[in-house]
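note to self — DONT lose this again. spent like an hour looking for the file last time. sequence + predicted structure for the chain T wanted, 244 res
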Amino acid sequence: MGISKRRAAAKPLVTAVIVAAGKGERMGAGIDKQLAPLCGMPVVARTIAAFEESLLTDEIVVVVSSAGMVPVAAIVKEFGFEKVVRIVAGGQTRQQSAAAGFAAANPATLFVAVHDGARPLIAPQAIDDVVAAAIESGAAAAAVRVKDTIKVADAQGFVVSTPERAALWAVQTPQAFGAELYRAALAAAERSGADYTDDCQLAEAAGHRVKLVECAYTNIKITTREDICYAQAILEEGAQGDYL
């Protein structure tokens, strides 16, 4: 389902917040997964490039660790990313980092799309599909149907129940929201002292429904060294963005 350039021109202002402030502890000592090379480009550069190509994204705010400010600024300059308007320092948690990025967005922004910097294989079309769904419904997230049978276990590791697989999805990013909805959800979480690892939880906790948009299994998150190898294989096979 393509997004026409005419439709893109008439849409509301959309800011992408790319959260790339994680410590990447599971990558091993001394390795910043955002800067790790992936088929000739740093991971975060591939992520930014996808949003550069997105028809429905107007500007990009990149959220990084304090140590990442200089190298990411150099990457933006090297690759000529024109949509990146700000690079800001993140907080202690993912929620705080996403909030910092949102605070740096254009005040006229009507929708925000939050994405993990370590998901470099997101396809521009998938970004547009999620944003379009958020514009229509208020909140949307990339997701894939669960392939495996899932078990719910008790504290001792014994199976309690087996949820119906047809109803189960694994959520990804981007996750997109109306700006006012997202602002109110962040404020509600702060008041209650809640700190979520997933932006959908913010909206859900504030009573909003989130539309899931089926995307690609190739939209993996780089967490370990093995993920770099997997991502490289996907790129070499030319399968990026396939709706598998």
